[in-house]
Amino acid sequence: MAYNDTFDNYISILEQVPYLGENFQAPIKIIKDEAAIQVWQVEQRTKLTRSAKDPKWADIGIICNDPYVVILRDLVEFPGGFRGGYIRLYNRAYLEGGAAGVVTLPVKDNQVLLMHNFRHATRGWHWEIPRGFGEPGVAAETQASVEVQEEIGVEVDELVNLGLYFNNTGLEGNPIWLFLARVNQDPVVNEEIGVDKLRWVAVEELESMIANAEITDGFTIAAYTRAKLRRLI
Protein backbone atom coordinates (compact mmCIF):
# COMPACT_ATOMS: atom_id res chain seq x y z
CA MET A 1 0.00 0.00 0.00
CA ALA A 2 1.48 3.34 -1.02
CA TYR A 3 0.94 6.44 1.11
CA ASN A 4 1.22 10.12 0.26
CA ASP A 5 -0.25 13.37 1.51
CA THR A 6 -3.13 13.84 -0.96
CA PHE A 7 -6.67 13.85 0.34
CA ASP A 8 -7.64 10.93 -1.90
CA ASN A 9 -4.90 8.75 -0.44
CA TYR A 10 -5.86 9.81 3.09
CA ILE A 11 -9.44 8.70 2.47
CA SER A 12 -8.11 5.54 0.82
CA ILE A 13 -6.22 4.62 4.00
CA LEU A 14 -9.36 5.09 6.09
CA GLU A 15 -11.26 2.80 3.72
CA GLN A 16 -8.59 0.12 3.26
CA VAL A 17 -7.77 -0.10 6.98
CA PRO A 18 -11.36 0.09 8.32
CA TYR A 19 -10.61 0.60 12.02
CA LEU A 20 -8.74 3.82 11.19
CA GLY A 21 -11.95 5.53 10.08
CA GLU A 22 -14.46 3.72 12.32
CA ASN A 23 -17.05 6.02 13.87
CA PHE A 24 -19.50 3.44 15.24
CA GLN A 25 -20.20 4.24 18.90
CA ALA A 26 -17.22 6.60 18.94
CA PRO A 27 -17.89 9.83 20.83
CA ILE A 28 -15.11 11.57 18.88
CA LYS A 29 -16.23 11.41 15.22
CA ILE A 30 -13.88 11.55 12.25
CA ILE A 31 -15.14 13.97 9.59
CA LYS A 32 -14.51 12.46 6.16
CA ASP A 33 -16.62 14.77 3.98
CA GLU A 34 -14.22 16.74 1.76
CA ALA A 35 -16.45 19.82 1.55
CA ALA A 36 -16.80 20.03 5.33
CA ILE A 37 -13.04 19.63 5.73
CA GLN A 38 -12.35 22.40 3.22
CA VAL A 39 -14.69 24.80 5.02
CA TRP A 40 -12.97 24.13 8.34
CA GLN A 41 -9.51 24.47 6.80
CA VAL A 42 -10.27 27.88 5.27
CA GLU A 43 -11.53 29.18 8.61
CA GLN A 44 -8.65 27.68 10.58
CA ARG A 45 -5.95 28.86 8.19
CA THR A 46 -7.32 32.39 8.41
CA LYS A 47 -7.16 32.25 12.22
CA LEU A 48 -3.64 30.83 12.18
CA THR A 49 -2.39 33.44 9.72
CA ARG A 50 -3.87 36.27 11.80
CA SER A 51 -2.06 34.85 14.84
CA ALA A 52 1.24 34.65 12.90
CA LYS A 53 1.16 30.85 13.14
CA ASP A 54 1.82 28.27 10.45
CA PRO A 55 -1.33 27.74 8.31
CA LYS A 56 -0.13 24.18 7.62
CA TRP A 57 -1.32 23.34 11.12
CA ALA A 58 -4.77 23.18 9.54
CA ASP A 59 -3.74 20.54 6.99
CA ILE A 60 -5.93 17.43 7.15
CA GLY A 61 -4.67 14.12 5.82
CA ILE A 62 -1.29 12.40 5.84
CA ILE A 63 1.13 14.88 7.39
CA CYS A 64 4.13 12.53 7.64
CA ASN A 65 4.92 9.66 5.31
CA ASP A 66 8.01 7.98 6.70
CA PRO A 67 9.53 4.52 6.08
CA TYR A 68 8.71 3.68 9.71
CA VAL A 69 5.74 5.80 10.74
CA VAL A 70 2.63 7.36 9.22
CA ILE A 71 1.11 10.40 10.94
CA LEU A 72 -2.47 11.46 10.21
CA ARG A 73 -4.21 14.65 11.13
CA ASP A 74 -7.98 14.12 11.14
CA LEU A 75 -10.75 16.64 11.41
CA VAL A 76 -12.84 15.38 14.31
CA GLU A 77 -16.01 16.43 16.06
CA PHE A 78 -16.00 16.16 19.85
CA PRO A 79 -19.04 15.28 21.99
CA GLY A 80 -19.48 18.98 22.76
CA GLY A 81 -20.12 19.69 19.07
CA PHE A 82 -16.90 21.59 18.31
CA ARG A 83 -14.43 20.49 15.64
CA GLY A 84 -10.66 20.45 15.55
CA GLY A 85 -7.61 18.81 14.05
CA TYR A 86 -6.31 15.75 15.90
CA ILE A 87 -3.10 13.90 15.04
CA ARG A 88 -2.37 10.21 15.49
CA LEU A 89 0.67 8.11 14.73
CA TYR A 90 0.95 4.54 13.42
CA ASN A 91 3.93 2.31 12.77
CA ARG A 92 3.89 1.49 9.08
CA ALA A 93 4.38 -2.23 9.74
CA TYR A 94 1.09 -2.31 11.66
CA LEU A 95 -0.77 -0.85 8.69
CA GLU A 96 0.83 -3.45 6.43
CA GLY A 97 -0.11 -6.60 8.34
CA GLY A 98 2.72 -6.91 10.84
CA ALA A 99 3.24 -6.14 14.50
CA ALA A 100 3.72 -2.44 15.19
CA GLY A 101 6.57 -3.22 17.54
CA VAL A 102 7.78 -5.66 20.14
CA VAL A 103 9.40 -5.37 23.58
CA THR A 104 11.15 -8.35 25.14
CA LEU A 105 12.20 -8.90 28.77
CA PRO A 106 15.25 -11.24 28.76
CA VAL A 107 15.42 -13.46 31.86
CA LYS A 108 18.14 -15.89 32.96
CA ASP A 109 18.40 -17.50 36.42
CA ASN A 110 15.68 -15.14 37.66
CA GLN A 111 17.69 -12.09 36.64
CA VAL A 112 16.70 -9.53 34.02
CA LEU A 113 19.07 -8.20 31.39
CA LEU A 114 19.20 -4.42 30.91
CA MET A 115 20.85 -2.56 28.05
CA HIS A 116 22.38 0.90 28.47
CA ASN A 117 21.09 2.42 25.28
CA PHE A 118 21.47 5.90 23.78
CA ARG A 119 18.20 7.18 22.36
CA HIS A 120 18.12 9.85 19.69
CA ALA A 121 14.68 11.18 20.67
CA THR A 122 15.71 12.05 24.23
CA ARG A 123 19.39 12.66 23.34
CA GLY A 124 20.27 10.63 26.39
CA TRP A 125 21.14 7.21 27.85
CA HIS A 126 18.50 4.83 29.21
CA TRP A 127 18.51 1.47 30.96
CA GLU A 128 16.01 -0.61 29.01
CA ILE A 129 15.27 -3.99 27.47
CA PRO A 130 15.38 -5.06 23.81
CA ARG A 131 12.69 -3.70 21.55
CA GLY A 132 12.15 -2.80 17.95
CA PHE A 133 9.79 -1.86 15.17
CA GLY A 134 7.81 -4.63 13.58
CA GLU A 135 8.12 -5.72 9.98
CA PRO A 136 5.24 -5.78 7.46
CA GLY A 137 3.64 -9.23 7.44
CA VAL A 138 5.85 -10.58 10.27
CA ALA A 139 4.18 -11.98 13.38
CA ALA A 140 5.02 -10.44 16.74
CA GLU A 141 6.50 -13.68 18.15
CA THR A 142 8.91 -13.98 15.24
CA GLN A 143 9.90 -10.35 15.49
CA ALA A 144 10.52 -10.62 19.25
CA SER A 145 12.98 -13.50 18.79
CA VAL A 146 14.72 -11.60 16.00
CA GLU A 147 15.12 -8.48 18.17
CA VAL A 148 16.70 -10.47 21.01
CA GLN A 149 19.15 -12.08 18.59
CA GLU A 150 20.03 -8.79 16.91
CA GLU A 151 20.34 -6.66 20.03
CA ILE A 152 22.01 -8.98 22.56
CA GLY A 153 23.21 -11.86 20.39
CA VAL A 154 21.40 -14.78 22.06
CA GLU A 155 18.79 -17.32 21.04
CA VAL A 156 15.44 -17.40 22.84
CA ASP A 157 14.75 -20.69 24.64
CA GLU A 158 11.20 -19.82 25.65
CA LEU A 159 9.06 -16.87 24.63
CA VAL A 160 6.10 -15.92 26.82
CA ASN A 161 3.47 -13.55 25.43
CA LEU A 162 2.69 -10.82 27.98
CA GLY A 163 -0.02 -9.19 25.87
CA LEU A 164 -0.63 -5.84 24.23
CA TYR A 165 0.47 -2.46 25.51
CA PHE A 166 -0.50 1.00 24.29
CA ASN A 167 2.41 3.33 24.89
CA ASN A 168 0.59 6.65 24.47
CA THR A 169 -3.16 6.45 23.91
CA GLY A 170 -3.34 10.18 23.19
CA LEU A 171 -1.07 9.89 20.15
CA GLU A 172 -0.11 6.36 19.10
CA GLY A 173 -2.89 4.30 17.58
CA ASN A 174 -1.14 0.93 17.43
CA PRO A 175 -0.45 -1.54 20.23
CA ILE A 176 2.98 -2.93 21.07
CA TRP A 177 3.47 -6.58 21.99
CA LEU A 178 5.22 -7.37 25.26
CA PHE A 179 7.13 -10.63 25.77
CA LEU A 180 9.30 -12.38 28.32
CA ALA A 181 12.21 -14.32 26.82
CA ARG A 182 13.99 -17.01 28.80
CA VAL A 183 17.60 -17.35 27.64
CA ASN A 184 20.63 -19.41 28.67
CA GLN A 185 23.46 -17.84 26.68
CA ASP A 186 25.66 -14.95 27.69
CA PRO A 187 24.73 -11.74 25.82
CA VAL A 188 27.09 -9.51 23.87
CA VAL A 189 27.20 -5.73 23.65
CA ASN A 190 26.09 -4.40 20.27
CA GLU A 191 27.78 -1.02 20.06
CA GLU A 192 26.61 -0.57 16.48
CA ILE A 193 23.07 0.21 17.69
CA GLY A 194 24.14 2.65 20.41
CA VAL A 195 24.51 0.27 23.38
CA ASP A 196 27.63 0.68 25.53
CA LYS A 197 27.04 -1.92 28.27
CA LEU A 198 24.75 -4.67 29.55
CA ARG A 199 23.75 -5.46 33.11
CA TRP A 200 22.07 -8.46 34.74
CA VAL A 201 19.94 -7.39 37.71
CA ALA A 202 17.89 -9.29 40.26
CA VAL A 203 14.19 -8.46 40.44
CA GLU A 204 14.69 -6.56 43.69
CA GLU A 205 17.38 -4.38 42.10
CA LEU A 206 15.20 -3.81 39.04
CA GLU A 207 12.36 -2.66 41.26
CA SER A 208 14.72 -0.31 43.11
CA MET A 209 15.91 1.17 39.81
CA ILE A 210 12.32 1.79 38.75
CA ALA A 211 11.38 3.30 42.12
CA ASN A 212 14.42 5.60 42.07
CA ALA A 213 13.84 6.67 38.44
CA GLU A 214 17.05 5.05 37.24
CA ILE A 215 14.81 3.26 34.77
CA THR A 216 12.59 5.74 32.95
CA ASP A 217 11.69 3.73 29.86
CA GLY A 218 7.96 2.99 29.87
CA PHE A 219 8.26 -0.20 27.82
CA THR A 220 10.69 -1.70 30.31
CA ILE A 221 8.46 -0.79 33.25
CA ALA A 222 5.39 -2.20 31.50
CA ALA A 223 7.02 -5.54 30.57
CA TYR A 224 8.42 -5.96 34.10
CA THR A 225 5.01 -5.16 35.64
CA ARG A 226 3.19 -7.71 33.50
CA ALA A 227 5.76 -10.41 34.19
CA LYS A 228 5.83 -9.69 37.92
CA LEU A 229 2.05 -9.66 38.34
CA ARG A 230 1.80 -12.93 36.43
CA ARG A 231 4.47 -14.39 38.77
CA LEU A 232 6.81 -15.16 35.89
CA ILE A 233 9.75 -13.50 37.67
Explained architecture:
The protein is 28% helix and 32% strand. With 233 residues, it is α+β, with helices and mostly antiparallel strands. It folds into two domains: 7-95, no CATH class; 101-229, Nucleoside Triphosphate Pyrophosphohydrolase. The chain is elongated and about 60 Å long.
Helix content: 25-40%
The total strand number stands at 11
Order of helices and strands: HEHEEEHEEEEHEEEHH
Average pLDDT over all residues: 94
The level-1 CATH class of the largest domain: Alpha Beta
**CATH-defined topology of the largest domain:** Nucleoside Triphosphate Pyrophosphohydrolase
Number of domains: 2
Distance between the termini: 41 Å
Radius of gyration: 21 Å
Oligomer: single chain
CATH level-two architecture of the largest domain: Alpha-Beta Complex
Q: Based on CA inertia axes, which overall geometry fits?
A: elongated
- Report the sheet with the most strands, covering strand number, pairing sense and barrel closure: 7 strands, mixed
- CATH level 4 superfamily of the largest domain: Nucleoside Triphosphate Pyrophosphohydrolase
User: What is the strand content?
Assistant: 25-35%
In terms of per-residue confidence, which ranges show pLDDT below 50 for 5 or more consecutive residues? none
Structural class: alpha+beta
Tally of alpha and pi helices: 6
